[in-house]
Amino acid sequence: MRHIAVIGSGPAGYYTAEACQKQFGDAVRVDILDRLPVPFGLIRSGVAPDHQAIKGVSRRYEAVALTDNVRFVGNVMVGVDITVAELMELYDAVVLATGAPSDRPLALPGADLPGVIGSAAFVGWYNGHPDHAGLAPPLGGTDAVVIGNGNVALDVARILAKSRAEFSGSDIVSPALDALGGAGIRTITLLGRRGPAQIAMTPKELAELALLERAEPVVDPADLPSIAGDAELEPGLRKTLGHLRRFSAGRSGKPIAIRFAFFSQPVAIEGSARVERVIVERTRIDASGAAIGTGERHAVPASLVIACIGYRTPRIAGVPYDDAAGRFANEEGRILPRLYAVGWARRGPSGTIGTNRPDGFAIAEKIAADIPGDSGRVGRPGLDALLGERGIDVVTFRDWQQIDAAEVAARRGDAPREKFTSIPDMLGARTL
User: Fold this and answer.
1) How do the residues of the chain divide into helix, strand and coil, expressed in percent and rounded to 5?
2) Global pTM value
3) Lowest mean pLDDT, pick from 213-217, 231-235, 357-361
4) Pairing state of beta strands 291-301 and 277-285?
């Protein structure tokens, strides 16, 4: 019997558990530990609340969780309640699937001004993550600036622009819905240091902007490349440029503008007591594809700045860390003997949710190669004894089902659920 501990219950964690089941059959026991009492990680607190179809993948993880040889162990913080070294004494292999939930720092003068927020915090706020439920972003001003040209920036802009009615059927938490409903924002500027041909937004998500009730995307035609070169582009980028060209046709009169500011590198954030403007330098693309500053600068009004520039994996004591990459130091998923990383904790914040599946299967194969037989470690019973001695209030998957039922019962209108936004409330929803 092999005993495997997976730290993190998001997509990378559950795909790894599924892969271990397929690799070892009945001869494996997998415990999935999470610091929160609720599973599914990024699916619950990262995916946009108006993208419910994407969240449906959690049903696959639930099927894995309900099997006899996989167990959810929630409300346990590795590094605080139990160390990685202790887990390695108990388990044959320990897999870090903690994701990258922390914002990459915005290294600009003025980045510490009130009103400057990282996307992990802002996304966590409207998704009800307990770490960010009390964020209270300043939404009373008229000008928001979103730094970044990826899908996270697109999500943030769309959420800021939607009317209350457009959140019908979503699981946005009520405090965020109420705050956004009273927002005064009229211009959302998306700053991208490179041009339309280098945009990281995907066509499907970009197309959603054209369907918004009270907001419209705006692109300067002068920023667009010649249509003559479109035939040489890969199909996805060709579709993306097609959307941007349609956005450049002019405004139709909707009250909110989502402005794409290409070739715009933020160089400073200014304000007396809080953010008031972002200083932007015009860029050009050199022969290598890099954005080079031209020296031409201007100010963009901003009552709110949200930086969507990437994420980092939090450190865990005793685990080697690659500070430059913002993830655990590893070689193809191997950190130390019997210690592995998977998903964003392994490769950094890249790829889609589905990218984690082959990643998990690759790690399962490495575990099989590195640990050919039964080591005699105790696994699950040892963990239970240690957590019991320390008085840790462990949340099981059955407990999660009770929390889930309580959230569903508390839903408003046609929302799928009303999430608990504090750990005490989650724990209190259980029937002990």
Assistant:
1) 35, 20, 45
2) 0.94
3) 231-235
4) antiparallel
Of 209, 93, 110, nearest to 159 by C-alpha is 209
β 187-191/256-261 pair status? parallel
**Chain centroid to CA 270:** 28
Which of helix, strand or coil describes residue 24?
helix
Question: Does the pLDDT value for residue 25 go beyond 80?
Answer: yes
CA 119 to chain centre: 9
Rounded mean pLDDT of the chain? 95
CA 278 vs CA 114, 358, 381: distances in Å: 13, 41, 55
- What kind of architecture, by CATH, is found in domain 2-101+313-428? 3-Layer(aba) Sandwich (3.40)
Question: Contact, 325 vs 348, CB < 8 A?
Answer: yes
Nearest to 408 by CA among 417, 399, 400: 417
DSSP category for residue 311:
E
For the cut 70, the answer to whether the pLDDT of residue 432 exceeds it is no
Which CATH architecture best describes the domain 104-307? 3-Layer(bba) Sandwich (3.50)
Q: Per-residue confidence at 429, pLDDT binned at 50, 70, 90?
A: very high
Residues 6+ apart with CB under 8 A from 324: none
Give the per-residue pLDDT at 251.
Answer: 84
Residue 109 CB neighbour total at 10 angstroms: 11
Neighbouring CB atoms inside 10 A of 223's CB total 16
Q: What are the boundaries of each domain within the chain?
A: 2-101+313-428, 104-307
CA distances, 421 to each of 110, 126, 172, 425, 430 (Å): 30, 10, 11, 7, 15
- The answer to whether 2-101+313-428 and 104-307 have equal CATH topology is no
Q: Which amino acid is at 39?
A: P
Range 11-33 average pLDDT: 96
**How do residues 350-406 score in pLDDT, each as one tens digit?**
888 888 999 999 999 999 999 987 778 999 999 999 999 999 999 999 999 999 999
Would you call 161 exposed, middle or buried from its count of C-beta atoms within 10 A (0-12, 13-18, 19+)? buried
Say if CB 13 and CB 97 are below 8 A apart: yes
HSE-up of residue 272 (Cα within 13 Å, Cβ side): 0
Q: What are phi and psi of 169, to 5 degrees?
A: 85, 0
Task: Report d(CA 216, CA 256) in Å as an integer.
Answer: 6
